[in-house]
Amino acid sequence: MTIAPITLAPAQRAVELIGGDLTEKSLRLHLEGLSGVDAVGLEQRAADLGSRSIKTTSKARALDTIIRLIDLTTLEGADTPGKVRSLVAKALTPDPADLSTPRVAAVCVYGDMVPHAVQALGAAHGDPDAGLVSVAAVATAFPSGRALLPVKLADTRDAVAAGADEIDMVIDRGAFLSGRYGEVFDQIVAVKDACRRDDGTFAHLKVILETGELNTYDNVRRASWLAILAGGDFIKTSTGKVAPAATLPVTLLMLQVVRDWHVLTGERIGVKPAGGIRTSKDAIKYLVTVAETVGEEWLVPHLFRFGASSLLNDVLLQRQKMTTGHYSGPDYVTVD
Amino acid sequence: MATEPTSSFLEYAPAPESTAILSLKSDYGLFIDGEFVAGNGTPFATISPATERHIATIASANAHDVDTAVAAARAAYDTTWSRLSGADRGKYLFRIARLVQERARELAVAESLDNGKPIKESRDVDVPLVAAWFFYYAGWADKLDYAGLGADPRALGVAAQVIPWNFPLLMLAWKIAPALAAGNTVVLKPAETTPLTALLFAEILQQADLPPGVVNIITGAGETGEALVNHPDVNKVAFTGSTAVGRAIAKSTAGTGKRLTLELGGKAANIVFDDAPIDQAIEGIVNGIFFNQGHVCCAGSRLLVQENVHDEVVDRLKARLSTLRLGDPLDKNTDIGAINSREQLERVRALSDIGEAEGAERWSPACDIPTDGFWFAPTIFTNVSTSHRIAREEIFGPVLSVLTFRTPAEAIAKANNTPYGLSAGIWSDKGSKILAVADQLRAGVVWANTFNRFDPASPFGGYKESGYGREGGRHGLTAYLESSGWGADRGLRSAPARIESSPTKKSRRKQAAK
Q1: Measured between CA atoms, how close is A297 to chain B, in angstroms?
Q2: CA separation for the pair A254, A245 (Å, rounded)
Q3: Which of A36, A166, B240, B355 could pair with B429 in a Cys bridge, judged by C-beta atoms 3.0 to 4.6 Å apart?
């Protein structure tokens, strides 16, 4: 008896790296051949990076950089067009008391809220690298990903058609944990394909690994490679709906994968920690980790994002402190 | 506050730890019998190796001062310390540990100032370990019956302790804490280039109200140390430092009845197998050799890397070294501080030049070297063979020699092929391989998937020319105790009759109570 090799959907990166005969088996061999991760050492390195002392001018610069890299997010069942408009207003003018404050990179909403976000942004809608604000939509049956592929693809196409610039998809963690890497790979490839616009360009694809459910660092490393091989533009830690969400060690690990990919291919992949980053102090640790792991050229909106909602206000408070020399309070930043 | 990024974010703004917390005196005397007294030798200056600036003038002890210090220690032993219960000795040690914690920031700043090590290391490693060592041995003070030396092990008497400049306060703690817990009194000599924290520690002893004479701290150069270890009224000598001096001490104490422990040099192998967790191994290699500028006797100065991953490891290592920050030891972002002295800098330079001359390939990342002070850029040598001097001799600086191996058997053979045997490291994701290799390494400490980790509960010490005796853990107590009584080898061997005829101290006490 011979087992017919399952040929996976074509994905340029994987074909180039692993070879033309891309099968479930070749993919498995590749992922399982990756170097292991020592949890103690990884966490120690993350803690070490977290102990950098970022003061005065460096801090001022870090705070503005954080704002430029935020995906201002609302992902609630209770979201309404009004809530999204309010979020967009905050994205465009984070601090009404200080108009020198930069804009955030994007607003991140559910697919059905995309038209409202696009409309509210108006002329400010566009590429964050050019100082405009993108619209990111979560798709593929976010956050669980438990739906059939056609549903996930329709979810994605609708969001793109409505004007989403970025799609935050979730991987099928169940399939991943049961070792069906090919299935996860195929789905990412298919979603990437669904990101294609009529003019042939693609919405940026962020692949959410949900590291809190993958549980081990070895799994996170494999899933990161898998997502990149399948065509992801960004790898993202979490949905924000599962604890633990983003952690510094997990983000460091994903940055190491991205760095290795760059060394191997010259291509730059983005990283997005999401969920649980609430304070400027924490966010600065992430900036340091990015700068010292992959280099500071990654600190731009198309290569690094924070998925966060409450972080922005803490950064604004710190920014006000640096400008005025004294601390204000929560009533001096807006509730959106 | 519009900040237009002009320079690199990675050029972190200076974040210096303030020295305002220090209130140093301009002159320090010798700490004898609980007081600071003038020394009879020629005073010397201690400087900051990062700037070559004068910190303070330090008294020097001559033979007469050594005599006074040993006499004070003897008197304290006879009249006070040997008469205290273990529980009471423990109270003093706990008090010292707490005071070290309370004054941690001050001690860290002083250490970085005087030694040149980065403040993040003195703050996060040295000083916390100092407190941990005192806490740990404080706990042992009333439990010596359970140290495995039989019931009622006895203190030795007066301990002469000579410590090096690489971890000035930590080495002090390694020496003093077990000695006091075991009931000995101490005369300690810190290194000539790093006396500052030992003198601050003397102030802590005053604060802790430790009975006068129990700990005496005398400063000076090599002759002071020589006079101390050769003093006839010393019962125990503990030395950490170079193998050459250790050998001289072993000779001069031979036949005197003095107990001796030596913690000397090393040339540790850090073995990286091809199945190692690669990113963490790179961190471990960096920590192994560049921690404390490589001024670590157990530094992983020989990197043994499996040939099939050699190029990848070296490339990654070079990329990582390029992110290290060399500079002001008091800046909280500094990774690599200053070399401790001009003398040491010359030695590191000389051996590195020899490495180049012998044909090894030298590489350092681009890094600005400050004009004043003693500095050496982190350096790695590739194409090193086992016969090169940089693969044999202890450099005691930020210099790594990279060698290769093909099989575990070759790794073990090369790792053991050194006159030293203090420490070793193994990097592999495979637990069974780690255990099999660790079993065959002749090194006192073997780290698996980590390096340069210390804990007071873990014994530390060497094989061969790395010295003898163990510091830390229960084993560390045996260096300061004479076993006696029931169940102890020595007691049974020396006087079997005594067991029948003479009751132990404890049973005497019991009888007295009746």
Answers
A1: 10
A2: 14
A3: A36
